[in-house]
Design a protein that fits this description.
- With 566 residues, the chain is α+β, with helices and mostly antiparallel strands.
- The protein has three domains: 271 residues, Bira Bifunctional Protein, Domain 2 (BirA Bifunctional Protein, domain 2, 2-Layer Sandwich); 136 residues, YbaK/aminoacyl-tRNA synthetase-associated domain (YbaK protein); 95 residues, Rossmann fold.
- The strands form eight sheets. Strands 3, 7, 8, 9, 10, 11, 12, 23 and 26 form a nine-stranded mixed sheet that branches. Strands 14, 15, 16, 17, 18, 20, 21 and 22 form an eight-stranded mixed sheet that branches. A five-stranded mixed sheet has the order 30-29-31-32-33, with helices on both faces.
- Strand 20 and strand 21 form a beta hairpin.
- Helix 1 packs across helix 9 and helix 2 packs across helix 9.
Protein backbone atom coordinates (compact mmCIF):
# COMPACT_ATOMS: atom_id res chain seq x y z
CA UNK A 1 0.00 0.00 0.00
CA UNK A 2 1.26 3.47 -0.90
CA UNK A 3 0.88 5.94 1.94
CA UNK A 4 -0.40 8.55 -0.49
CA UNK A 5 -3.35 6.26 -1.27
CA UNK A 6 -4.09 5.06 2.27
CA UNK A 7 -7.37 6.45 3.61
CA UNK A 8 -5.96 7.93 6.80
CA UNK A 9 -5.61 11.30 8.44
CA UNK A 10 -3.29 11.73 11.40
CA UNK A 11 -3.84 14.63 13.79
CA UNK A 12 -1.39 16.85 15.62
CA UNK A 13 -3.50 17.04 18.78
CA UNK A 14 -5.51 14.58 20.82
CA UNK A 15 -9.33 14.91 20.71
CA UNK A 16 -10.75 17.03 23.53
CA UNK A 17 -13.28 14.42 24.65
CA UNK A 18 -10.76 11.57 24.98
CA UNK A 19 -9.63 10.33 28.41
CA UNK A 20 -8.13 6.91 27.70
CA UNK A 21 -4.80 6.73 25.89
CA UNK A 22 -6.28 4.16 23.49
CA UNK A 23 -9.08 6.56 22.60
CA UNK A 24 -6.61 9.41 22.12
CA UNK A 25 -4.27 7.40 19.93
CA UNK A 26 -6.92 5.62 17.87
CA UNK A 27 -8.40 8.98 16.87
CA UNK A 28 -5.14 10.86 16.44
CA UNK A 29 -3.51 8.05 14.44
CA UNK A 30 -6.48 7.80 12.08
CA UNK A 31 -7.92 4.43 13.15
CA UNK A 32 -11.42 5.52 14.17
CA UNK A 33 -13.76 8.47 13.70
CA UNK A 34 -16.61 9.37 16.03
CA UNK A 35 -20.13 9.33 14.56
CA UNK A 36 -22.13 9.78 17.78
CA UNK A 37 -21.51 9.38 21.49
CA UNK A 38 -20.06 5.89 21.97
CA UNK A 39 -20.37 5.03 18.25
CA UNK A 40 -17.35 4.99 15.91
CA UNK A 41 -16.45 4.23 12.31
CA UNK A 42 -13.54 1.81 12.01
CA UNK A 43 -11.28 3.27 9.33
CA UNK A 44 -9.02 1.05 7.15
CA UNK A 45 -6.14 0.80 9.63
CA UNK A 46 -8.49 -0.25 12.41
CA UNK A 47 -10.32 -2.67 10.15
CA UNK A 48 -7.06 -4.45 9.38
CA UNK A 49 -6.36 -4.86 13.10
CA UNK A 50 -9.90 -6.08 13.78
CA UNK A 51 -9.66 -8.56 10.91
CA UNK A 52 -6.43 -10.00 12.30
CA UNK A 53 -7.89 -10.37 15.79
CA UNK A 54 -11.02 -11.96 14.31
CA UNK A 55 -8.96 -14.41 12.26
CA UNK A 56 -7.02 -15.49 15.33
CA UNK A 57 -10.30 -15.97 17.18
CA UNK A 58 -11.73 -18.02 14.31
CA UNK A 59 -8.68 -20.26 14.03
CA UNK A 60 -8.61 -21.05 17.75
CA UNK A 61 -12.39 -21.47 18.08
CA UNK A 62 -12.48 -23.77 15.05
CA UNK A 63 -9.57 -25.76 16.50
CA UNK A 64 -11.56 -26.19 19.73
CA UNK A 65 -14.41 -27.83 17.81
CA UNK A 66 -16.76 -24.83 17.78
CA UNK A 67 -18.68 -23.93 14.63
CA UNK A 68 -19.31 -20.44 13.27
CA UNK A 69 -22.72 -19.06 12.36
CA UNK A 70 -24.26 -15.59 12.11
CA UNK A 71 -27.42 -14.52 13.93
CA UNK A 72 -29.71 -11.50 13.44
CA UNK A 73 -28.74 -8.15 14.97
CA UNK A 74 -32.39 -7.11 15.44
CA UNK A 75 -34.31 -9.39 17.80
CA UNK A 76 -38.03 -9.72 18.64
CA UNK A 77 -39.19 -8.91 22.18
CA UNK A 78 -40.98 -12.24 22.36
CA UNK A 79 -37.87 -14.33 22.97
CA UNK A 80 -36.61 -11.86 25.60
CA UNK A 81 -39.95 -12.04 27.35
CA UNK A 82 -39.69 -15.84 27.38
CA UNK A 83 -36.29 -15.66 29.06
CA UNK A 84 -37.69 -13.05 31.47
CA UNK A 85 -34.97 -10.54 30.54
CA UNK A 86 -37.06 -7.99 28.60
CA UNK A 87 -37.38 -5.83 31.71
CA UNK A 88 -34.48 -7.16 33.76
CA UNK A 89 -31.81 -6.20 31.24
CA UNK A 90 -32.62 -2.56 31.93
CA UNK A 91 -32.09 0.56 29.88
CA UNK A 92 -28.96 -0.76 28.14
CA UNK A 93 -31.33 -2.76 25.95
CA UNK A 94 -32.28 -0.42 23.10
CA UNK A 95 -35.93 -1.18 22.36
CA UNK A 96 -37.82 -0.16 19.23
CA UNK A 97 -40.88 -1.04 17.14
CA UNK A 98 -41.13 -2.12 13.53
CA UNK A 99 -43.75 -0.67 11.17
CA UNK A 100 -46.27 -3.27 12.31
CA UNK A 101 -45.98 -2.26 15.95
CA UNK A 102 -43.96 -5.33 16.97
CA UNK A 103 -41.53 -4.68 19.79
CA UNK A 104 -37.91 -5.33 18.88
CA UNK A 105 -34.44 -4.65 20.28
CA UNK A 106 -30.89 -4.19 19.04
CA UNK A 107 -28.77 -7.13 20.12
CA UNK A 108 -26.63 -6.58 23.21
CA UNK A 109 -26.03 -10.34 23.33
CA UNK A 110 -27.53 -13.48 21.78
CA UNK A 111 -28.46 -16.02 24.48
CA UNK A 112 -32.15 -15.87 23.56
CA UNK A 113 -31.59 -16.19 19.82
CA UNK A 114 -29.15 -19.09 20.02
CA UNK A 115 -31.40 -20.96 22.45
CA UNK A 116 -34.30 -20.56 20.03
CA UNK A 117 -32.18 -21.70 17.09
CA UNK A 118 -30.72 -24.79 18.74
CA UNK A 119 -33.99 -25.94 20.31
CA UNK A 120 -35.47 -26.44 16.87
CA UNK A 121 -32.54 -28.44 15.49
CA UNK A 122 -30.54 -30.29 18.18
CA UNK A 123 -33.49 -32.18 19.64
CA UNK A 124 -31.66 -35.37 20.65
CA UNK A 125 -28.89 -36.12 23.13
CA UNK A 126 -27.05 -37.68 20.17
CA UNK A 127 -26.51 -34.20 18.71
CA UNK A 128 -24.88 -32.86 21.88
CA UNK A 129 -22.54 -31.40 23.00
CA UNK A 130 -22.54 -28.45 20.64
CA UNK A 131 -20.64 -25.14 20.60
CA UNK A 132 -21.67 -22.38 18.17
CA UNK A 133 -20.07 -18.95 17.81
CA UNK A 134 -20.29 -15.76 15.80
CA UNK A 135 -18.36 -12.50 15.36
CA UNK A 136 -20.83 -9.64 15.12
CA UNK A 137 -21.75 -6.10 16.12
CA UNK A 138 -23.51 -5.59 19.45
CA UNK A 139 -25.25 -2.53 20.88
CA UNK A 140 -25.64 -1.64 24.56
CA UNK A 141 -27.07 1.77 25.37
CA UNK A 142 -24.52 2.70 28.02
CA UNK A 143 -25.63 5.58 30.24
CA UNK A 144 -22.13 7.12 30.16
CA UNK A 145 -20.09 5.91 27.18
CA UNK A 146 -16.44 6.72 27.79
CA UNK A 147 -12.90 5.67 27.03
CA UNK A 148 -13.58 5.29 23.31
CA UNK A 149 -13.81 1.62 22.35
CA UNK A 150 -13.39 0.45 25.94
CA UNK A 151 -16.86 1.59 26.97
CA UNK A 152 -18.71 2.31 23.75
CA UNK A 153 -22.31 1.65 22.87
CA UNK A 154 -21.66 -0.21 19.61
CA UNK A 155 -18.87 -2.78 19.53
CA UNK A 156 -17.67 -5.96 17.86
CA UNK A 157 -17.85 -9.18 19.83
CA UNK A 158 -17.22 -12.87 19.43
CA UNK A 159 -19.92 -14.71 21.35
CA UNK A 160 -20.14 -18.48 21.66
CA UNK A 161 -22.73 -20.73 23.28
CA UNK A 162 -22.42 -24.38 24.22
CA UNK A 163 -25.15 -26.95 24.87
CA UNK A 164 -24.77 -30.05 27.04
CA UNK A 165 -26.60 -32.93 28.65
CA UNK A 166 -24.79 -32.68 31.99
CA UNK A 167 -23.07 -30.23 34.30
CA UNK A 168 -19.93 -32.35 34.09
CA UNK A 169 -19.79 -31.97 30.32
CA UNK A 170 -20.37 -28.20 30.63
CA UNK A 171 -17.41 -28.01 33.03
CA UNK A 172 -15.28 -29.91 30.52
CA UNK A 173 -16.16 -27.45 27.76
CA UNK A 174 -15.61 -24.54 30.15
CA UNK A 175 -12.03 -25.69 30.61
CA UNK A 176 -11.62 -26.10 26.83
CA UNK A 177 -12.81 -22.52 26.33
CA UNK A 178 -10.55 -21.29 29.13
CA UNK A 179 -7.52 -22.72 27.33
CA UNK A 180 -8.79 -21.48 23.97
CA UNK A 181 -9.05 -17.96 25.35
CA UNK A 182 -5.54 -18.12 26.76
CA UNK A 183 -4.31 -19.20 23.31
CA UNK A 184 -6.22 -16.41 21.55
CA UNK A 185 -4.93 -13.58 23.69
CA UNK A 186 -1.39 -14.96 23.71
CA UNK A 187 -1.42 -14.98 19.90
CA UNK A 188 -2.67 -11.39 19.95
CA UNK A 189 0.38 -10.48 22.01
CA UNK A 190 -1.57 -9.96 25.23
CA UNK A 191 -0.94 -11.58 28.58
CA UNK A 192 -4.23 -12.01 30.42
CA UNK A 193 -5.31 -13.10 33.88
CA UNK A 194 -8.52 -15.09 34.35
CA UNK A 195 -10.33 -13.69 37.39
CA UNK A 196 -13.53 -14.65 39.15
CA UNK A 197 -16.28 -12.18 38.31
CA UNK A 198 -19.91 -11.24 38.73
CA UNK A 199 -22.16 -12.76 36.07
CA UNK A 200 -24.24 -9.61 35.74
CA UNK A 201 -27.20 -9.58 33.34
CA UNK A 202 -25.86 -12.67 31.52
CA UNK A 203 -26.43 -14.83 34.59
CA UNK A 204 -25.16 -18.22 35.64
CA UNK A 205 -23.47 -19.61 38.72
CA UNK A 206 -19.81 -19.47 37.65
CA UNK A 207 -18.01 -16.91 35.50
CA UNK A 208 -14.49 -15.67 34.83
CA UNK A 209 -13.23 -12.56 33.10
CA UNK A 210 -10.03 -12.36 31.08
CA UNK A 211 -8.22 -9.20 32.08
CA UNK A 212 -5.33 -7.39 30.45
CA UNK A 213 -3.44 -5.94 33.40
CA UNK A 214 -2.46 -2.33 32.75
CA UNK A 215 -0.76 0.54 34.53
CA UNK A 216 -2.98 3.22 33.01
CA UNK A 217 -5.58 4.95 35.14
CA UNK A 218 -8.43 3.85 32.88
CA UNK A 219 -8.20 0.19 33.73
CA UNK A 220 -11.93 -0.18 34.21
CA UNK A 221 -11.75 -2.75 36.98
CA UNK A 222 -9.71 -3.28 40.09
CA UNK A 223 -8.34 -6.81 40.18
CA UNK A 224 -7.39 -8.35 43.51
CA UNK A 225 -4.99 -11.25 43.40
CA UNK A 226 -2.60 -13.34 45.43
CA UNK A 227 0.55 -15.29 44.61
CA UNK A 228 -1.31 -18.48 45.58
CA UNK A 229 -3.40 -18.12 42.41
CA UNK A 230 -6.52 -16.42 43.75
CA UNK A 231 -7.75 -13.54 41.58
CA UNK A 232 -11.08 -11.77 41.28
CA UNK A 233 -12.70 -8.67 39.89
CA UNK A 234 -13.53 -6.12 42.60
CA UNK A 235 -17.23 -6.83 42.08
CA UNK A 236 -16.68 -10.45 43.07
CA UNK A 237 -13.59 -10.44 45.29
CA UNK A 238 -13.77 -11.59 48.90
CA UNK A 239 -11.24 -11.27 51.69
CA UNK A 240 -10.55 -11.96 55.32
CA UNK A 241 -10.30 -8.76 57.35
CA UNK A 242 -6.99 -8.04 59.05
CA UNK A 243 -8.97 -7.22 62.17
CA UNK A 244 -12.14 -9.26 62.25
CA UNK A 245 -13.33 -8.05 65.65
CA UNK A 246 -13.57 -4.45 66.81
CA UNK A 247 -14.60 -3.07 70.19
CA UNK A 248 -15.37 0.58 70.82
CA UNK A 249 -14.94 0.00 74.57
CA UNK A 250 -17.92 2.14 75.48
CA UNK A 251 -19.29 1.01 78.87
CA UNK A 252 -22.96 1.60 78.14
CA UNK A 253 -25.30 2.55 75.31
CA UNK A 254 -26.30 6.19 75.21
CA UNK A 255 -27.07 9.02 72.79
CA UNK A 256 -24.34 11.64 72.56
CA UNK A 257 -24.01 15.00 70.82
CA UNK A 258 -21.87 14.83 67.71
CA UNK A 259 -22.32 18.20 65.98
CA UNK A 260 -21.13 18.64 62.39
CA UNK A 261 -19.85 15.06 62.08
CA UNK A 262 -21.45 13.83 58.88
CA UNK A 263 -18.48 11.78 57.69
CA UNK A 264 -16.82 8.76 59.23
CA UNK A 265 -13.52 10.66 59.44
CA UNK A 266 -15.13 13.59 61.27
CA UNK A 267 -16.98 11.30 63.67
CA UNK A 268 -13.93 9.15 64.45
CA UNK A 269 -11.83 12.24 65.17
CA UNK A 270 -14.56 13.81 67.33
CA UNK A 271 -15.00 10.66 69.47
CA UNK A 272 -11.29 9.74 69.39
CA UNK A 273 -11.97 6.25 68.05
CA UNK A 274 -10.96 4.22 65.00
CA UNK A 275 -13.31 4.18 61.98
CA UNK A 276 -13.74 0.40 62.35
CA UNK A 277 -15.62 1.03 65.63
CA UNK A 278 -18.41 2.80 63.73
CA UNK A 279 -21.30 0.98 62.07
CA UNK A 280 -21.96 3.03 58.96
CA UNK A 281 -25.38 3.27 57.29
CA UNK A 282 -25.46 3.93 53.54
CA UNK A 283 -28.85 4.69 52.03
CA UNK A 284 -29.90 3.66 48.49
CA UNK A 285 -32.89 3.55 46.22
CA UNK A 286 -33.11 0.11 44.61
CA UNK A 287 -35.76 -0.28 41.90
CA UNK A 288 -37.63 2.70 43.42
CA UNK A 289 -37.54 1.22 46.94
CA UNK A 290 -35.50 2.51 49.93
CA UNK A 291 -32.62 0.40 51.21
CA UNK A 292 -30.14 0.82 54.05
CA UNK A 293 -26.79 -1.00 53.81
CA UNK A 294 -24.96 -1.35 57.12
CA UNK A 295 -21.19 -1.76 56.99
CA UNK A 296 -18.16 -1.26 59.21
CA UNK A 297 -16.91 2.31 59.09
CA UNK A 298 -13.54 1.57 57.49
CA UNK A 299 -15.17 -0.35 54.62
CA UNK A 300 -17.02 0.73 51.46
CA UNK A 301 -20.08 -0.73 49.72
CA UNK A 302 -19.46 -2.65 46.48
CA UNK A 303 -22.61 -1.70 44.60
CA UNK A 304 -22.68 -4.66 42.21
CA UNK A 305 -22.66 -7.01 45.20
CA UNK A 306 -25.40 -4.95 46.82
CA UNK A 307 -27.52 -4.99 43.67
CA UNK A 308 -27.15 -8.79 43.44
CA UNK A 309 -28.02 -9.24 47.12
CA UNK A 310 -31.19 -7.21 46.52
CA UNK A 311 -31.88 -8.92 43.18
CA UNK A 312 -32.34 -5.38 41.87
CA UNK A 313 -32.09 -4.03 38.33
CA UNK A 314 -30.84 -0.58 39.32
CA UNK A 315 -29.56 1.11 42.45
CA UNK A 316 -28.50 4.66 43.22
CA UNK A 317 -27.49 6.57 46.37
CA UNK A 318 -30.42 8.16 48.18
CA UNK A 319 -30.74 11.94 47.91
CA UNK A 320 -30.74 14.04 51.10
CA UNK A 321 -34.43 14.89 50.86
CA UNK A 322 -35.23 11.19 50.33
CA UNK A 323 -33.39 10.31 53.55
CA UNK A 324 -35.74 12.62 55.42
CA UNK A 325 -38.82 11.39 53.54
CA UNK A 326 -38.24 7.62 53.52
CA UNK A 327 -36.16 7.09 56.65
CA UNK A 328 -37.33 9.90 58.90
CA UNK A 329 -33.65 10.52 59.52
CA UNK A 330 -30.88 12.97 58.63
CA UNK A 331 -27.93 12.56 56.23
CA UNK A 332 -24.83 11.64 58.20
CA UNK A 333 -26.80 10.37 61.20
CA UNK A 334 -28.71 7.42 59.69
CA UNK A 335 -29.38 4.20 61.62
CA UNK A 336 -31.19 0.96 60.89
CA UNK A 337 -32.98 1.23 64.21
CA UNK A 338 -36.67 2.11 64.34
CA UNK A 339 -36.94 1.67 60.59
CA UNK A 340 -40.20 0.21 59.30
CA UNK A 341 -38.98 -3.09 57.84
CA UNK A 342 -42.12 -3.38 55.74
CA UNK A 343 -41.10 -0.26 53.84
CA UNK A 344 -37.30 -0.20 54.06
CA UNK A 345 -34.98 -3.14 53.32
CA UNK A 346 -31.93 -3.36 55.61
CA UNK A 347 -28.82 -5.42 54.82
CA UNK A 348 -25.77 -5.99 57.01
CA UNK A 349 -22.32 -6.61 55.56
CA UNK A 350 -20.18 -9.44 56.94
CA UNK A 351 -17.76 -6.84 58.32
CA UNK A 352 -20.36 -5.95 60.99
CA UNK A 353 -20.26 -9.44 62.53
CA UNK A 354 -17.37 -8.82 64.89
CA UNK A 355 -18.39 -5.37 66.11
CA UNK A 356 -19.05 -4.67 69.79
CA UNK A 357 -19.85 -1.50 71.74
CA UNK A 358 -19.71 0.48 68.52
CA UNK A 359 -20.98 3.88 67.37
CA UNK A 360 -24.19 4.13 65.38
CA UNK A 361 -26.29 6.94 63.91
CA UNK A 362 -29.19 8.02 66.14
CA UNK A 363 -31.54 9.17 63.36
CA UNK A 364 -31.40 12.55 65.08
CA UNK A 365 -29.48 15.47 63.64
CA UNK A 366 -26.05 15.95 65.27
CA UNK A 367 -26.44 12.86 67.47
CA UNK A 368 -25.01 9.35 67.51
CA UNK A 369 -25.38 6.31 69.72
CA UNK A 370 -22.26 5.03 71.51
CA UNK A 371 -21.89 1.58 73.05
CA UNK A 372 -24.35 -0.03 70.63
CA UNK A 373 -24.44 -3.75 69.91
CA UNK A 374 -26.13 -5.77 67.20
CA UNK A 375 -29.54 -7.30 67.63
CA UNK A 376 -29.94 -11.08 67.41
CA UNK A 377 -30.96 -13.00 64.29
CA UNK A 378 -29.35 -10.58 61.85
CA UNK A 379 -28.63 -12.02 58.38
CA UNK A 380 -25.26 -11.00 57.02
CA UNK A 381 -24.26 -10.76 53.35
CA UNK A 382 -21.10 -9.84 51.48
CA UNK A 383 -21.64 -6.34 50.08
CA UNK A 384 -18.23 -4.79 50.80
CA UNK A 385 -15.44 -3.68 48.53
CA UNK A 386 -12.19 -5.53 49.18
CA UNK A 387 -9.14 -3.43 50.04
CA UNK A 388 -5.55 -4.08 49.10
CA UNK A 389 -3.73 -5.67 52.02
CA UNK A 390 -6.74 -7.55 53.34
CA UNK A 391 -6.11 -11.27 53.53
CA UNK A 392 -6.53 -13.79 50.72
CA UNK A 393 -9.51 -16.10 51.38
CA UNK A 394 -7.41 -19.10 50.33
CA UNK A 395 -3.93 -18.70 51.82
CA UNK A 396 -4.50 -15.75 54.20
CA UNK A 397 -1.65 -13.69 52.76
CA UNK A 398 -2.17 -9.98 51.91
CA UNK A 399 -4.06 -9.37 48.66
CA UNK A 400 -2.51 -7.24 45.93
CA UNK A 401 -4.39 -4.90 43.61
CA UNK A 402 -3.91 -3.90 40.00
CA UNK A 403 -5.95 -2.42 37.16
CA UNK A 404 -7.47 -4.59 34.48
CA UNK A 405 -9.31 -4.24 31.18
CA UNK A 406 -11.80 -6.99 30.46
CA UNK A 407 -11.34 -8.47 26.99
CA UNK A 408 -13.19 -11.77 27.43
CA UNK A 409 -15.52 -13.64 29.73
CA UNK A 410 -16.85 -17.16 30.14
CA UNK A 411 -20.01 -18.25 31.97
CA UNK A 412 -21.57 -21.46 33.17
CA UNK A 413 -25.22 -20.65 32.49
CA UNK A 414 -26.81 -23.94 33.47
CA UNK A 415 -30.51 -23.88 32.53
CA UNK A 416 -31.01 -20.12 33.03
CA UNK A 417 -32.27 -19.72 29.44
CA UNK A 418 -33.32 -23.19 28.40
CA UNK A 419 -35.78 -23.71 31.25
CA UNK A 420 -37.89 -20.53 30.89
CA UNK A 421 -37.73 -20.80 27.10
CA UNK A 422 -38.74 -24.49 27.22
CA UNK A 423 -35.70 -25.39 25.09
CA UNK A 424 -35.22 -29.12 25.50
CA UNK A 425 -33.65 -32.23 24.05
CA UNK A 426 -34.73 -35.84 24.36
CA UNK A 427 -32.42 -37.93 26.59
CA UNK A 428 -31.60 -41.66 26.30
CA UNK A 429 -34.77 -42.58 28.17
CA UNK A 430 -36.95 -40.49 25.89
CA UNK A 431 -37.45 -37.79 28.52
CA UNK A 432 -37.41 -34.07 27.69
CA UNK A 433 -34.59 -32.22 29.48
CA UNK A 434 -33.54 -28.57 29.30
CA UNK A 435 -30.14 -27.91 27.76
CA UNK A 436 -27.32 -27.15 30.16
CA UNK A 437 -25.59 -24.16 28.62
CA UNK A 438 -22.34 -22.20 28.64
CA UNK A 439 -21.56 -18.78 27.19
CA UNK A 440 -18.19 -17.38 26.06
CA UNK A 441 -17.50 -13.83 24.87
CA UNK A 442 -14.53 -11.88 23.51
CA UNK A 443 -14.59 -8.15 22.86
CA UNK A 444 -12.85 -7.92 19.49
CA UNK A 445 -12.86 -4.12 19.34
CA UNK A 446 -12.02 -3.92 23.06
CA UNK A 447 -9.04 -6.19 22.46
CA UNK A 448 -7.71 -3.69 19.93
CA UNK A 449 -8.09 -0.84 22.43
CA UNK A 450 -6.65 -2.90 25.29
CA UNK A 451 -3.54 -3.66 23.24
CA UNK A 452 -2.92 0.08 22.91
CA UNK A 453 -3.50 0.68 26.63
CA UNK A 454 -0.88 -1.99 27.27
CA UNK A 455 1.60 -1.07 24.53
CA UNK A 456 2.30 2.58 23.78
CA UNK A 457 4.78 5.33 24.55
CA UNK A 458 4.88 9.11 24.30
CA UNK A 459 5.24 8.85 20.52
CA UNK A 460 2.27 6.60 19.78
CA UNK A 461 1.14 2.98 19.47
CA UNK A 462 3.43 -0.05 19.73
CA UNK A 463 1.46 -2.85 18.08
CA UNK A 464 2.13 -6.52 18.80
CA UNK A 465 3.28 -7.90 15.45
CA UNK A 466 0.39 -10.36 15.12
CA UNK A 467 -2.26 -7.63 15.05
CA UNK A 468 -0.36 -4.66 13.58
CA UNK A 469 -2.19 -3.11 10.61
CA UNK A 470 1.01 -3.22 8.51
CA UNK A 471 4.36 -4.63 9.51
CA UNK A 472 6.90 -2.49 7.67
CA UNK A 473 6.94 1.20 6.78
CA UNK A 474 9.46 2.19 4.10
CA UNK A 475 10.31 5.89 4.26
CA UNK A 476 12.29 7.52 1.46
CA UNK A 477 13.57 10.77 2.98
CA UNK A 478 13.40 12.65 -0.31
CA UNK A 479 10.88 11.38 -2.84
CA UNK A 480 12.46 13.58 -5.52
CA UNK A 481 15.73 11.70 -5.18
CA UNK A 482 15.70 9.04 -7.90
CA UNK A 483 18.13 6.71 -6.14
CA UNK A 484 16.24 6.82 -2.86
CA UNK A 485 12.94 6.13 -4.60
CA UNK A 486 14.45 3.32 -6.66
CA UNK A 487 15.81 1.53 -3.57
CA UNK A 488 12.62 2.18 -1.58
CA UNK A 489 10.45 0.84 -4.40
CA UNK A 490 12.68 -2.20 -4.80
CA UNK A 491 12.43 -2.96 -1.06
CA UNK A 492 8.66 -2.50 -1.27
CA UNK A 493 8.31 -4.94 -4.18
CA UNK A 494 10.54 -7.60 -2.62
CA UNK A 495 8.76 -7.48 0.75
CA UNK A 496 5.37 -7.72 -0.96
CA UNK A 497 6.51 -10.84 -2.80
CA UNK A 498 7.37 -12.33 0.60
CA UNK A 499 3.77 -11.62 1.71
CA UNK A 500 5.04 -9.11 4.26
CA UNK A 501 2.53 -6.32 4.79
CA UNK A 502 4.33 -3.15 3.84
CA UNK A 503 3.66 0.57 3.42
CA UNK A 504 5.68 2.79 1.08
CA UNK A 505 5.49 6.36 2.36
CA UNK A 506 5.64 8.11 -1.00
CA UNK A 507 4.26 11.40 0.30
CA UNK A 508 6.29 14.51 -0.49
CA UNK A 509 6.16 15.62 3.15
CA UNK A 510 9.20 16.34 5.29
CA UNK A 511 10.98 13.30 6.69
CA UNK A 512 10.14 14.40 10.24
CA UNK A 513 6.41 14.25 9.47
CA UNK A 514 6.77 10.75 8.06
CA UNK A 515 8.79 9.56 11.07
CA UNK A 516 6.22 10.95 13.52
CA UNK A 517 3.36 9.30 11.65
CA UNK A 518 5.22 5.97 11.58
CA UNK A 519 5.67 6.04 15.36
CA UNK A 520 2.14 7.32 15.97
CA UNK A 521 0.50 4.61 13.86
CA UNK A 522 2.83 2.03 15.35
CA UNK A 523 4.38 0.16 12.43
CA UNK A 524 6.62 -2.51 14.03
CA UNK A 525 9.50 -1.85 11.57
CA UNK A 526 10.58 1.33 9.80
CA UNK A 527 13.13 1.25 7.01
CA UNK A 528 14.48 4.70 6.13
CA UNK A 529 16.12 5.25 2.76
CA UNK A 530 18.15 8.45 3.05
CA UNK A 531 21.58 9.90 2.42
CA UNK A 532 23.35 6.77 3.67
CA UNK A 533 22.15 4.93 0.58
CA UNK A 534 25.20 6.41 -1.13
CA UNK A 535 27.13 4.08 1.21
CA UNK A 536 24.79 1.19 0.37
CA UNK A 537 22.99 1.40 3.72
CA UNK A 538 19.46 2.00 4.98
CA UNK A 539 18.28 2.72 8.53
CA UNK A 540 16.36 -0.12 10.18
CA UNK A 541 14.31 0.80 13.26
CA UNK A 542 12.40 -1.58 15.53
CA UNK A 543 9.45 0.30 17.03
CA UNK A 544 9.12 -1.82 20.18
CA UNK A 545 12.70 -1.33 21.40
CA UNK A 546 13.66 1.84 19.56
CA UNK A 547 16.78 0.05 18.28
CA UNK A 548 18.22 1.58 15.09
CA UNK A 549 20.80 -0.22 12.97
CA UNK A 550 22.38 0.42 9.58
CA UNK A 551 21.98 -2.40 7.06
CA UNK A 552 22.24 -2.97 3.37
CA UNK A 553 18.87 -3.27 1.59
CA UNK A 554 19.32 -7.03 1.26
CA UNK A 555 20.22 -7.32 4.95
CA UNK A 556 17.13 -5.26 5.81
CA UNK A 557 14.98 -7.75 3.93
CA UNK A 558 16.60 -10.67 5.78
CA UNK A 559 16.04 -8.86 9.09
CA UNK A 560 12.36 -8.42 8.22
CA UNK A 561 12.09 -12.13 7.46
CA UNK A 562 13.81 -12.98 10.74
CA UNK A 563 11.43 -10.83 12.80
CA UNK A 564 8.19 -11.37 10.91
CA UNK A 565 8.31 -14.79 9.30
CA UNK A 566 9.96 -16.95 11.96
Amino acid sequence: MKMSKLFVQTLREYPNDAEAISHKLLVRAGFIKKLANGIYTYLPLAQRVLTKISNIVREEMDASGAQELLMPFVQPAEIWQKSQRWQKYGKELLRCEDRHGNQMCLAPTHEEVITSVVSGIATSYKQLPLNLYQIQTKFRDEIRPRFGLLRGREFIMKDAYSFHTSQKDLEREYEVMAQTYTNIFKRCGLETKAVQSDSGAIGGAVSHEYMVLVDTSVGENDVFYCDCGYSANSNHAISILNKEETNGNFKEEKIVDTPNTKTIEELAKFLNIEPDCILKAVAYIADSKPVIAMIRGDKEIEETKLMNALNALEIRPMENDEVIEYLNSYPGFISHRDVDSSKVRVLFDNSAKGMKNFVLGANIKDKHITGANLEKDIEFVDISLVKEGELCPICHKPLKKTKGIEVGNIFQLGTKYSSPMNACYTDEQGQLKPYIMGCYGIGVSRTMAAAIEKYHDEHGIIWPIAIAPYHVDIVPVNCDDEEQMKIASDLYDKLQKLNIEVILDDRKDRAGVKFKDADLIGFPIRITVGKTISEGLVEFKIRKTGEVIKLSPDEAIEKCKEILLN
